[in-house]
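hey so u asked for the seq, here:
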Amino acid sequence: MSHTSMDPTKMGIGRSVAVLTSGGDAQGMNAAVRATVRVGLYTGAKVYFVHEGYQGLVDGGDNIKLATWESVSMMLQLGGTVIGSARCMDFRAREGRMKAALNLVKLGITNLCVIGGDGSLTGANQFRTEWSTLLVDLVKAGKISDDEAKTSSHLNIVGMVGSIDNDFCGTDMTIGTDSALHRIIEVVDVIAVTHGFCCLFGTCHQRTFILEVMGRHCGYLALVTALACGADWVFIPEMPPDEGWEGHLCRRLADQRARGCRLNVIIVAEGAMGRDGKPIGSEDIKKLVEKNLGFDTRTTVLGHVQRGGTPSAFDRILGSRMGVEAVMALLEATPETPACVVSLSGNQAVRLPLMECVQVTKDVTTAMAENRWEDAIKLRGKSFENNWNTYKMLAHINPPDTKSNINVAIVNVGAPCAGMNAAVRSAVRIGIIQGHNMLAVHDGFEGLAHGNIVPITWTGVSGWTGKGGSELGTKRVLPSKYIEEISLTIAKFNIHSLVIIGGFEAFMGGLELVTAREKYEELCIPMVVIPATVSNNVPGSDFSIGADTALNTITSTCDRIKQSAAGTKRRVFIIETMGGYCGYLATMAGLAAGADAAYIYEDKFGIRDLEMNVEHLVQKMKTDVKRGLILRNEKCNANYTTDFIFALYSEEGKGVFDCRKNILGHMQQGGTPTPFDRNFGTKMGSKAVLWLTEKLKEMYRHGRIFANTPDSACVLGMRKRALTFQPLAELNEQTDFEHRIPKTSWWLKLRPIMKILAKYNISLDTSEHAHMEHVIKKRVSMPAPLIKKHKEEVEEEEE
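ran it, structure tokens below
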């Protein structure tokens, strides 16, 4: 349904919204609270904090307080939840829920936003279901009048899932999961780097590390950690190891040692168990390894450190987007609308019926209890299933006996970025598993022209997932000046297919090679471009490897810069980000760091806009807020430079605030990759080589490979909810070659959110908001009663 005629600034007039956080806290909850409050106020609604979760709802009084714009300032970077969370037994009893209803009715609150796990959201749905009977009982008891009951006749509920375990079905990522992965990977890196540093000097032991992470009922954290660090083994509740796993594990560890690997890593979810239902703990595994192999073994149980720390950029943006969506879902709801959760699928915000999600989450538990392990994996969702399948493939360390006699070359092109090495590692190992000979091209297309090519082995890419930059070496040189030499090299090394990993130069280089196919038959081989650049400007993909790492670097730097002004007078910081002409980093960092403005090339601005922004900050500094943040993309405007904007703000802010400027520069390209970039790079590398393998079979004719169709040279990219292959030639029309950016970008639709959260009175296009979907449609293996129930619901809708 469309809401284009609805004025979003008047949607909430005369209505009240309350927001609470419940259950275990998760990083990013504060971003969701902040967005809920500010968007609620933007719509004209009254917004209330409910402190201490459901307990505060039951106790009432000072636990339910009116929220203001300033009351949610400077909370984006804080972990946990500033409004408190508590496990509440009182709310489980009807008497407690009656007290909660009374408190809401007295304040005129009929819209409730709940941020928590499946238990918290199930409780919210029960509260909504029995709301009318609670009001009847309150009227009978003389605690509310008939008029009050009539005014508050219906309660709207919207949920946001805050859980570090990512254990709620229907959403790709729950608030807090990415930040928890950051904490875990920090520990893994410390273990790996310390061990590697010692090895350089020949002083370290050969050692096995066992890391136990959270996940009592869900193995997501363990699984993604295993993918992100290249673990030797992972134990998750959804898929217990086969009978005789003890021998298999010991053989794998011994085999790795025989290959020269001095460090073994095993990841264990706290809820891991065997096929017999008995728990498998880190100490059990340690005893097994020490007894059977005699390896020096250490265990680390991370515990609540995974819940702590500042939220990642992803969790801040996720919480902010979900908060906006939650308010819109509440204000658009009717008495017939089922309680929903706002969720993420790919990069798309979706609304899903709350109880459908809860039911599928329960179905996972049922499947596990009934030993239907494959069903449990599928019910977790496509993202979980893809992670599991990728891990299973990469876990094989014995190459097939029969070789394919196919040579696959891998080249890095353009500027280096974090996550490139993870993609190379994955591509190499999947290629070896397929029986191919893998070739590493050093120094980009120039290296390809000069024959700077060596075979690369399984152990040759060990430990690459956590390394930043490009181990293969990379250059910005395009192939056009070396086309003849490249074709001769391809013939000399008998290269049958090419994996090109890089940014816009990789895309351009791929196009040039495809164009040259007409003249050089040697170039008629399958090719795939994997986008890897901090700028996120490659056509054909919503995300590029490396962009998440750069985004986190910018966000954490903004946090530190803002913190540097704590306790001083009012100050505005102007920060320049990378990205070329692409404003992705500036926009997303603006959302994650709470910027007042982000100047980018794609969103044209002039002197009137600058004047409005300065005036906006002058007014802001008259409140309790003492800091401002302005981001500027490096090529947003040739005349309105960073120095110009700094001078303008300094002059116009005289007597109200002073200014500082920072140019972040190449620090945005450095550092170790984030969990997202490691995982994304691993999946992209894997999928690229599997696709090439199929293409090679299709293109094999009369004893040779000949590929000259458009679909034999593609960009592998994330498009909305799926990884897709798009022919390079087709992406020509979608590209602005002068400015090296796609003609359309999905993230531009998020810019109004950033402006609204910065208190700009602009229009929000409500027609773009998500519509209600059904989680069941995305599941392939459903218990019969649930399928029947879903079919009945769909038939009712159609009628």
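The chain has a mean pLDDT of 90. DSSP finds 25 helices and 26 strands in the chain.
lmk if thats what u needed
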